[in-house]
Amino acid sequence: MAAALGAVALLATVWELYKAAGPAQGWSLGQTRILPRTSDLAMPHTWDMLQRLVEPITGARDAAPLWRAVLDAGAVSLGIAAVGWAIGVGVGLLIAVAMQRLRVVERAVLPLVILSQTVPLIALAPLVRSWGSRLEIGSLEWAPWMSVAVIASYLAFFPVAVGALRGLQSPSAIQTELMHAYGAGWWTTLLHLRAPAAVPHVLPALRLAAANAVIGTVVAEVATGLPGGLGRMILELANFAGSDPAKPWAPIFGAVVLGLLAAGIVTALGAGLARFRRMEASA
Amino acid sequence: MTAAAVRVTGVTRVFAGAGREVVALEDVDLTVAPGEFVSLIGPSGCGKSTLLRLIADLDAPSAGTVEVFGRPAREARLSRDYGIAFQQAGLLPWRTVRANIELPLALAGVGRGARRERADHLLDLVGLADFAGQFPDQLSGGMQQRVAIARALADEPSLLLMDEPFGALDEMTREHLQTQLLRICAENRAAVVFVTHSIPEAVFLSDRVVVMSARPGRVREDIAVRLDRSAVAGAGLDSASDDLRADAGFFAHVARVRAALHGTPSLAVAGDTVAEDAVRGGAA
Predict the structure, then answer these.
(1) Which superfamily does B32-61+160-284 belong to?
(2) Secondary structure E strands in B17-127
(3) Which intervals hold domain ABC transmembrane type-1 (chain A) (predicted)?
């Protein structure tokens, strides 16, 4: 915790130092700007950004403070990200178990799993939205937020599938042969050996998945234009970059905090599994 | 006639290597009587571990048959006729010592109360009653191996298969555990097939030492060991084992097994005579 706060303080210091001492016009290589301008427009002071958070969101008399709006949008995004995370974790674990069960599935599916992450989310988002809008499952009506959750799950399942597969394959030959010697079948071996052995691999994967789900949610909100969440807010407040330069930073901070919060929640969920994280017996 | 604990008949095991076949075992016969302690010894690559794995049905022979208590090895495995221990303890790190010992019982569907009772007895047997609640990473290598032996005994098997279980331990721990194993076997009356590459270990523990030769793996000689182990097996005292290890009969058998291992039949015959004399002398 102290280290995390220190890192934030360091980042703020670097920001302010560059702003104070960096080249005013930034630095460009040909047409490409490598380093940003140091003007208040391009790089507002960190304290201005913080102060902007407590000021009202608009000039209207009854406007809520900006932090309140960010909080509300963050809650919406967190809810969608949680659904996306849950779907992603479920799918990821199923894929991992299937890959462990059958080598041929591993050989066939693992490359696809890796390939899936090279498809840009921006390209995928409109597709999912249009498929979703045509979908009718009984009385369930496909809501736009569901498309966002599905896209978030698309990012979340990947670390879980890869991490869980490694974990399920981690027991030593002696341990698997021991289960075999006891006449234990595949399911019993999964339950008593492979699943517990996978825990130390799965927990970090779940944290990664949480961070991915948040990123996926925010990006998908931007790409599908879903209102209410942080993604849309980032898009809307970006318009104020010229007139109110500290304002667009508020939802960006919100997104960062959201990612940390999501990873923190998952870490707390895993706290009860400490005994599965013991080091492998050495002899 | 009661069925032999293990009956291996004409077993050959060929591994398909890269481009050529490796004959790990060729036409091996082996019979182990109930309650008998048999060691398999030989140079590395002689197939002694392979033979043990065939008995455990962790591998299947290319030719020949393996029977355990009159049944095919596979049936014996599925009905948990044997307990097994390897060179590595292979304990589950997330289970306590007690839970590790109870694992085979839990898999067999034994109730909680009965599991606890059996585990208490086994913990006493291997002298780890004070460590029941510890995790494997808190134990020394020798203690882990004792847990593995207790686990192998959990189902009260009439056959114990051990693949160099003391191979990774230091000499002191090794001799101590050998003594304890003799005591435990005397209590349990299980037949044991014990793979080792230590001649003194094989002689100290076994009723019979089966000497194997490498490439292809064959049984070269089957040497009966006649030593009076009652003092060791009774109380499991290290001092009694030290006496046994210093006995002339012990040395004579060691010399005989060594001669058989090195494939010098003339010496083996000479050693045989020495051994017989020594046994007679020791008995007198």
Answers:
(1) P-loop containing nucleotide triphosphate hydrolases (3.40.50.300)
(2) 21-32, 37-41, 63-68, 71-72, 82-85
(3) 74-270
